[in-house]
Amino acid sequence: MEKKEEMLMPVVQISLLPGRTAEMKERLMQKVTDAVTEALGVPKESVHILLYEIPKENIAHGGIPLSQSKP
Q1: What is the CA angle 18-20-21, rounded to 5?
Q2: Catalytic site residue 71?
Q3: Which residues in 5-34 are b (16+ Cβ under 10 Å) and which e?
Q4: pLDDT in tens, 20-45
Q5: 44 class by beta-carbon count within 10 Å (0-12 exposed, 13-18 middle, 19+ buried)
Q6: What is the DSSP annotation of the chain?
Q7: Cβ atoms of residues 33 and 70 within 8 Å
Q8: Choosing from 10, 43, 55, 71, which is the catalytic residue?
Q9: Domain ranges across the chain
């Protein structure tokens, strides 16, 4: 059986391309926190959100880096 603290600490990791404003990222984190709180019944204070901004040259689709693909 897990300790109660471990059960209350969901961590959500989100990877996205750079370019969103701080306000957009804040809104995303708020909405994800609300969804996790509702789905798992945990307090907002226990939800941790990690945003990873990954440059296009570090992501490939079909073997082609996004930085080289056409829009």
Answers
A1: 130
A2: no
A3: eeeeeeeeeeeeeeeeeeeeeeeebeeebe
A4: 999 999 999 999 999 999 999 999 99
A5: exposed
A6: ---HHHHT--EEEEEE-S---HHHHHHHHHHHHHHHHHHH---GGG-EEEEEE--GGG-EETTEEGGGS--
A7: no
A8: 10
A9: 21-68
pLDDT at residue 69 in the model: 83
- What's the pLDDT score for residue 1? 46
For 53-67, how does the pLDDT look when each residue is reduced to its tens digit (9 = 90+)?
Answer: 999 999 999 999 999
Is the CATH number of domain 21-68 3.30.429.10? yes
Q: What predicted TM-score, i.e. pTM, was given to this entire model?
A: 0.81
Residue 49: how many other CB atoms lie within 10 Å = 16
